[in-house]
Each structure stands twice: as C-alpha cells, then as structure tokens.
Design brief:
This protein has 73 residues and is mostly beta strands. The chain has one domain (10-71). The protein is 7% helix and 33% strand. The protein is built from 1 helix and 3 strands; from the N terminus they run ββαβ. The chain has a 3-stranded antiparallel beta sheet with strand order 1-2-3, with no helix packed on it. β1 and β2 form a beta hairpin. The N and C termini lie far apart (52 Å).
Length: 73
Amino acid sequence: MIPAYSYFDVSVAWRPSKNYTFRCGVNNITDKDPPISSDLAVYNRNGGANGNVYTGTYDSLGRMLFASFNAKF
C-alpha cells in the first residue's frame, strides 16, 4: 500500500498593466521524493510506470522552478 502524499506548489502573478503579466513559481517546493514500489517493475513493462514510480500521479522530477512573461498586442 502506498501512503497518501502531498506536494506543495507556490506561484505568483503580477500584472503591471492590462497588457503584461509576469508569473513565477516553484512546484514541489519541499523536493519530496515519490513513493517507490517494487510492484511497478512488472507494471513498467506495459508502459504504465517509469522508474518504479507512477509518473502520472506522483512528481518524479523533484523541485521545479518556472517563470513566464505574457504580452498582449
């Protein structure tokens, strides 16, 4: 049985005018590792898991930073 997991993400957006938006944030801010299961080694052969982790459910990349800038013309 895999225990419940919580990942914490933080993001902020700033709109200095109606035409410009800046965004930045951090996903998985605590850099929590996903649960590992030996049962997934069999499931991996069918293309459903990667590296003994359910990649569609758990964050397998660790902490990720992002930023964006949008402009409307």
